[in-house]
Design a protein that fits this description.
By secondary structure, the chain is of the alpha/beta class. Helices cover 34% and strands 18% of the residues. It is elongated, with a radius of gyration of 22 Å.
């Protein structure tokens, strides 16, 4: 099946905003293929539609959600209400949805009786674990960027397949980067409030390298334990294009997660592809989905090894920053561009969906 000129309802657990994550990128790339994408925000208080400023083929949809306690009602009532909400959405957009592409298994999960539409369950986050069995069983095809999730999906739907995170090839937008006193710049990008970050090993490295490297942390934050360190620069939230430029300015990009507690949750951080696309050297705690790239990612097998991996990379920066390694990192990211992932998904649809 060609993903071209289709009417697609894309269900997202995150609102449409300027900070693009995988759901937004898929919407944009599908729109560029002449599909009309209806991006469904999480439930709010009304039905509404608005056109996206990013692309003419993207419409943003708001809706009031479902009846409270719906899951406790008889199966037939649940299905009737699901169809009713979907029909209301089709009425406000004046279109007949052909494909339901859901990144959220907390809503629209009991859809096996919606037989006139192609249904894709695409779970990219391990914490998206609500009505997992219902969502997988009712889908025509299940996708995930985690082999652990795919393994679980297969218990309920044999048409379950691994699709790596996508890489968005976009232009970089320079901004004023407040430079520190140290020559080496080490960068991290992502939500600084998530529980996965290992602040102990990160803070230890920041203090030890106080006279060697400056740490630039991009992303939303509230109260984090290193704000007062003199070699730490908190940049706040950057746009997608600003992030691209940020990655390129860093001498080293880092991922420091508590793999003792969250090994499965951090097996495939989306930022890794963005890091790779910049070509910059990467020092990371263990991410199992990238073990095949351990010759161009300096990755610790155990989190206690991470500080030494960072110091090793600093002392051998020319080696990790070689043209060969930079090109391999960039090539891997481009091979997993959203355009290429959509081609892979098209092939799966051709092979497994009648």
């Amino acid at each position: 099946m060609k993903l071209f000129a289709k009417e697609i309802l894309l269900i997202s657990p995150e609102n449409w905003n300027e900070l693009n994550v995988s759901k937004h990128h898929y919407a944009i790339h599908l729109a560029e293929l002449d599909n009309h994408v209806y991006f469904l925000n999480p439930p709010s208080n009304r039905y509404n539609s608005s056109e996206s400023e990013i692309h003419d083929n993207i419409t943003i949809i708001d809706y009031p959600g479902f009846w409270p306690g719906l899951r406790w009602l008889p199966k037939g009532v649940r299905r009737w209400h699901l169809k009713r909400v979907l029909r209301n959405i089709e009425l406000i957009i004046d279109a007949n949805i052909e494909i339901i592409w859901s990144f959220d298994n907390s809503i629209f999960y009991q859809w096996e009786k919606i037989t006139d539409k192609l249904k894709i369950s695409h779970i990219v986050d391990l914490n998206m674990d609500f009505n997992f069995a219902f969502a997988a069983q009712g889908a025509d095809i299940c996708l995930s960027c985690s082999h652990e999730i795919v393994k679980r999906q297969k218990r309920f739907n044999s048409n379950s397949f691994f699709i790596q995170h996508g890489y968005s090839i976009r232009t970089a937008e320079p901004f004023d980067l407040n430079r520190g006193l140290n020559e080496i710049k080490i960068g991290y990008a992502g939500n600084l409030n998530i529980p996965y970050i290992d602040w102990d090993i990160l803070t230890s490295a920041i203090k030890e390298l106080a006279n060697t490297a400056d740490f630039y942390l991009a992303g939303s934050y509230n109260d984090i334990p290193i704000e007062t360190q003199s070699n730490v620069y908190l940049l706040g939230v950057l746009s997608t294009s600003e992030l691209r430029w940020f990655y390129e300015q860093m001498d080293i990009l880092i991922i420091a997660y508590d793999t003792d507690k969250y090994m499965q949750q951090v097996s495939n951080p989306h930022k890794m592809l963005e890091y790779l696309g910049s070509g910059s050297p990467i020092v990371s705690t263990f991410c199992s989905e990238y073990i095949q790239l351990d010759d161009c990612i300096c990755m610790s097998k155990q989190k206690k090894e991470w500080p030494d991996k960072l110091k090793h990379t600093l002392h051998h920066l020319e080696f990790w920053n070689s043209t060969e390694k930079r090109q391999k990192r960039i090539a891997y990211a481009k091979e997993n561009s959203y355009s290429n992932q959509l081609k892979r998904i098209e092939s799966l649809l051709d092979e497994f969906i009648e």
